[in-house]
Write a structure and sequence with these properties.
Blueprint: H1 30-40, H2 42-66, H3 110-146, H4 148-163, H5 166-183, H6 197-228, H7 232-239, H8 244-252, H9 257-280, H10 292-299, H11 307-335
Helix pairs in contact: 1-11, 2-3, 2-11, 3-4, 3-6, 3-9, 4-6, 5-6, 6-9, 9-10, 9-11, 10-11
């Protein structure tokens, strides 16, 4: 371009100016941020890997028993000492064929029994957790969203449930409830498998865990719903004519999954410990089907003859509980960065 009356010429160019200071930033969702925070926590990641390994062992154990790889109920009297009680050899009869040794008095492979015990204990704990969360989440959403009389009634039910001593109720109801499950419930079409005493006893423990474990979940969910129900998107859904069912499960529930997920990771180790304690008291799945609780209960009689028989199941139970608790702590910190351990 030439300015009239001047020799100055300005040449226009379309060459863009490169600015090295401009950096493209990719947005990340809250879920991606939570996963990144969780992966940055080395202790939580190690615990997560161990928890996945434990779950895989629980899944693989019954398959290996069916394939004939594991033999949890095979007796080996030749592996016992002359008194027929303590395992022959050092450290409970540990060998290449029996890496965890054998149990006293029977000579059964302890590794096979512990793997199958993890299956039984985890199945009860996970099933109990699922029912607990379903009951607690539904009642918590209804109480927090409805308010008024409904909230008051559910609140009194929560208080009444928390007032019952869980252990005493478990011991008192174990006989009649198990009989009812094996007779009355098994009469319904499709429920005939409850005639199996192991399934009936396991179902009883699950019922007790869920019946007395849901109130804390309901309180946590109710507290979240009290703040969510006043949000703009809830008002918009109401104005559009959304039904109660849609408000509960389409609008509210997806916004309370974070605390529920954290509570799930903390309930599983709590229920594993509870199942072991119940079996230790003689309530739950009975031998020869192994669980961590009945193996520990049996090992008390052999603490002098074979200390390893008591130490290994106890250490395994402690490891499982600690690992799942650390995963729960890591999930809580990842989902709520403001929280501190």
């Amino acid at each position: 371009m030439t300015i009239p009356g001047s020799e100055l010429e300005i040449h226009e160019t379309e060459t863009p100016v490169e600015d090295d200071s401009v950096v493209s930033v990719a947005g990340r969702s809250p879920t991606q941020l939570a996963i990144a925070r969780f992966r940055a926590d080395k202790l939580s990641m190690i615990s997560f890997v161990l928890s996945v390994f434990i779950v895989l062992c629980a899944i693989a154990a019954p398959i290996l028993v069916l394939l004939g790889v594991l033999h949890p109920n095979d007796f080996h009297q030749e592996l016992l000492s002359d008194d027929g009680v303590a395992p022959a050899g050092r450290f409970g009869g540990i060998s290449w064929d029996h890496p965890f040794g054998v149990d006293p008095g029977a000579g059964r492979d302890l590794l096979a029994r512990l793997m199958l015990a993890i299956t039984s204990s985890l199945t009860i704990a996970l099933t109990g957790t699922i029912f607990t969360v379903i009951i607690g989440a539904v009642l918590g959403i209804v109480a927090g969203f409805s308010g008024g009389f409904v909230d008051a009634v559910i609140g009194r039910i929560i208080d009444l449930t928390l007032s019952f001593p869980q252990t005493l109720m478990l011991l008192a109801l174990s006989g009649p409830v198990v009989v009812m499950i094996r007779q009355d419930v098994a009469d319904f079409p499709g429920f005939g498998f409850f005639t199996n005493p192991d399934l009936a006893n396991g179902a009883f423990v699950i019922v007790i865990l869920a019946a007395f474990g849901w109130p804390p979940v309901a309180r946590v969910v109710r507290g979240q719903v009290l703040s969510i129900r006043e949000r703009e998107f809830i008002e918009a859904a109401r104005l559009l004519g959304a039904s109660r069912r849609r408000l509960y499960f389409k609008e509210v529930l997806p916004n309370v999954w974070a605390p529920v997920l954290v509570y799930v990771t903390l309930l599983v180790p709590a229920y594993i410990s509870a199942e072991a304690a119940f079996n230790f008291l003689g309530v739950g799945i009975k031998p020869p089907t192994p669980t961590l609780g009945n193996i520990l209960a049996d090992s008390v009689s052999y603490t002098s003859a074979d200390p390893m028989y008591f130490f290994l199941p106890g250490a395994l139970l402690a490891l499982i509980v600690v690992v799942f608790n650390l995963v729960g702590d890591g999930a809580r910190d990842a989902l709520d960065p403001k929280s501190h351990r």
